[in-house]
């Protein structure tokens, strides 16, 4: 399903924030596509509503798995 | 000393070394001859130093003859994906960006191979930075599929899969962030294991996405994959993601069959989430029938949707990869191939909220898979939804790469093996996956070995010039 493009002024601000001005000048269609994909990818996730649901694994302390053969 | 049979495996070669019917030198010589004949069509290698390989094989031959055999991989050649460092050789990541990048030290997995007496030889084709391919606009040509060189071999560990299927080496290392060990295994009809996250060190491997990256063994048989995993697995304090455990003996379940096992079949992945090619769907149903005949109980089970797994993988991969590539994408975007540039760019526009939210949803997805695996020994599911497509048909190839069920287990970290489940009418491999509990990589390889015996596909090879 096609999704609406990101408005030009909004996209320009996003490009400046990302420091991609050179890339935008060389590959404008690719940059616009990437921004659209980023918006759509985030929207496709059912973000947890449980406040106690923490991210994994960057903040997970390493440990020995239970039941693993050693 | 007899001639070396085509497709001679690592375990068989190791036994022959002990029996004195084969030497590492004879094996290496035969493989180099085969590479010279076949690789100009397949492009598995980016770099091959035949003189160094022959010298290493001669050294192994002397050591084994003197009774100093270090283990099953002593004298066995292993192909290395070109995002993995081998000291003194370029690690180009198949990219113009790093075409002059010489590795200063061996990656942890390469050091482990050397310590075991294995011979890391040659750097193998990949997709650019393990994400941008198959591409025709890079410094090296893309690998091609030995079952039909007009087709791609999957990726990103494309040279690893193609070279194994072509019989150019018995073992190879691949990496897997969104399925890149299992994709070429599926497309080329070999076996590829994405181990439990943290089982194998990634030190010295160019990262794509830290929390999704795995190094995995690729081979033509489960037994060979287990031998390779035995050598490369283990804790590494220098790898932040390394599991604080030491599991070993990955061949211990190879003789076990399916009798009495409970297998959860994730049918909705290929039936409703992402309807598979009819030949793939039929091969999966036939697999379930064979497993039942072999004494397993096969039930349909439900996981989160494939589309949502893919979205979580895409956001995490995009954000983490952007943090690595941002300087080059800002300053040297023209030095990337088009596919890598396009795929890596997305991360620039993801928000912190997107990334943390995807990681939080990941927590729930891990729990969901664990809950099913509490009731079942393994999961059975699709790997690729289609047979490999022609490499010059960009749109069909893009579709092939998107239509797969491998990313769920990068998101969750569970061990997953992809292997052959049949041949299409056009003679291209079809595939399946077995997925296991955390750290039960031995069990997954045991299921793979039992599948090999029950289905017999491991004995099939592409028709290549003699």
Structural account:
The complex is a heterodimer of chains A (70) and B (466). Chain A is an all-alpha fold. Chain A has a domain at 8-42. Chain A is built from 3 helices and no strands. Chain A has helices at 8-18, 21-26, 28-43. The longest helix of chain A has 16 residues, at 28-43. Residues 64-70 of chain A have low confidence and may be disordered. Chain B has 466 residues and is an alpha/beta fold. Chain B has a single domain (10-459), classed as Amidase signature (AS) enzymes (Alpha-Beta Complex), CATH 3.90.1300. Chain B has an 11-stranded mixed sheet. In chain B, helix 7 (222-232) runs antiparallel to helix 15 (441-455) and helix 10 (306-331) packs antiparallel against helix 12 (352-373). Chain B starts with 9 loop residues before the first helix and ends in an 11-residue tail after the last helix. Chain A binds chain B through residues 14, 18-20, 22-23, 26-27, 30-31, 33-35, 37-39, 41-42, 44-48, 53-58, 62-65, 67-70, and chain B through 197-198, 211, 241-249, 252, 307-308, 311-312, 314-315, 318, 326, 329-331, 333-334, 338, 341-342, 345-351, 353-354, 356-364, 366, 413, 438-440, 442.
Write the layout of secondary structure elements.
The complex is a heterodimer of chains A (70) and B (466).
Chain A (H helix, E strand, L loop, with lengths): L7 H11 L2 H6 L1 H16 L27
Chain B lengths: L9 H10 L4 H19 L2 E3 L2 H16 L11 E5 L26 H8 L3 E6 L33 H8 L5 E6 L5 H7 L2 E4 L19 E6 L2 H11 L29 E4 L1 H7 L4 H16 L3 E4 L5 H26 L6 H8 L6 H22 L4 E4 L12 H9 L4 H6 L3 E8 L5 E7 L5 H15 L11
Helix pairs in contact in B: 2-3, 5-6, 7-15, 10-11, 10-12
């Amino acid at each position: 399903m096609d999704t609406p493009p990101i408005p030009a002024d909004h996209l320009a601000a996003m490009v400046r924030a990302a420091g991609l001005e050179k890339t935008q000048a060389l590959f404008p269609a690719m940059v616009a596509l990437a921004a659209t994909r980023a918006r759509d990818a985030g929207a496709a996730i059912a973000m947890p509503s449980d406040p106690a649901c923490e991210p994994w694994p960057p903040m997970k302390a390493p440990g020995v798995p239970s039941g693993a053969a050693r | 000393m007899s001639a070396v049979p085509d497709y001679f495996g690592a375990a068989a070669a190791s036994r022959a070394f002990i029996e004195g019917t084969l030497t590492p030198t004879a094996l290496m010589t035969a493989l180099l001859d085969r590479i010279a004949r076949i690789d100009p069509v397949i492009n598995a290698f980016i770099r091959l130093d035949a003189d160094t390989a022959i010298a290493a094989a001669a050294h192994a031959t002397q050591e084994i003859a003197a009774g100093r055999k270090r283990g099953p991989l002593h004298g066995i050649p292993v192909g290395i994906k070109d995002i993995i460092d081998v000291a003194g050789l370029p690690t180009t990541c198949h990219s113009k960006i790093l075409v002059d990048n010489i590795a200063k030290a061996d990656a942890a997995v390469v050091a482990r191979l050397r310590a075991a007496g294995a011979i890391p030889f040659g750097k193998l084709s990949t997709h650019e930075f393990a994400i941008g391919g198959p591409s025709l606009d890079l410094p090296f040509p893309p690998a091609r599929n030995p079952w039909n060189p007009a087709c791609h071999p999957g990726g990103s560990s494309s040279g690893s899969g193609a070279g194994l299927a072509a019989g150019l080496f018995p073992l190879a290392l691949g990496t897997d962030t969104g399925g890149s060990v299992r994709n070429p295994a599926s497309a080329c009809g070999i076996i590829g294991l994405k181990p439990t996250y943290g089982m194998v060190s990634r030190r010295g491997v160019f990262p794509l996405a830290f929390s999704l990256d795995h190094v995995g063994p690729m081979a033509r048989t489960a037994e060979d994959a287990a031998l390779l995993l035995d050598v490369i697995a283990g804790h590494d304090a220098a790898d932040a993601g390394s599991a604080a455990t030491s599991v070993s003996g990955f061949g211990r379940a190879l003789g076990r069959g399916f009798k009495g096992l409970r297998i959860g079949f994730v049918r909705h992945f290929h039936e409703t989430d992402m309807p598979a090619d009819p030949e793939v769907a039929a091969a999966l149903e036939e697999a379930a029938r064979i497993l039942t005949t072999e004494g397993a109980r096969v039930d349909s089970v439900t996981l989160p949707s494939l589309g949502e797994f893919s979205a979580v993988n895409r956001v995490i991969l995009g954000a983490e990869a952007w943090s690595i590539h941002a300087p080059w994408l800002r300053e040297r975007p023209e030095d990337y191939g088009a596919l890598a540039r396009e795929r890596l760019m997305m991360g620039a526009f993801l928000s912190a909220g997107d990334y943390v939210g995807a990681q939080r949803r990941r927590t729930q997805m891990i729990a969901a898979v664990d809950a099913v695996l509490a009731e079942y020994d393994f999961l059975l599911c699709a790997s690729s939804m289609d047979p490999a497509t022609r490499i010059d048909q960009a749109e069909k190839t893009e579709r092939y790469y998107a239509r797969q069920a491998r990313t769920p287990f990068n998101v969750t970290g569970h061990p997953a093996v992809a292997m052959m489940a049949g041949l299409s009418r056009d003679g291209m491999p079809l595939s399946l996956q077995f997925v296991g509990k955390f750290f039960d990589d031995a069990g997954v390889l045991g299921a793979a070995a039992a599948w090999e015996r029950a289905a017999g596909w491991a004995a099939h090879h592409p028709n290549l010039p003699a």
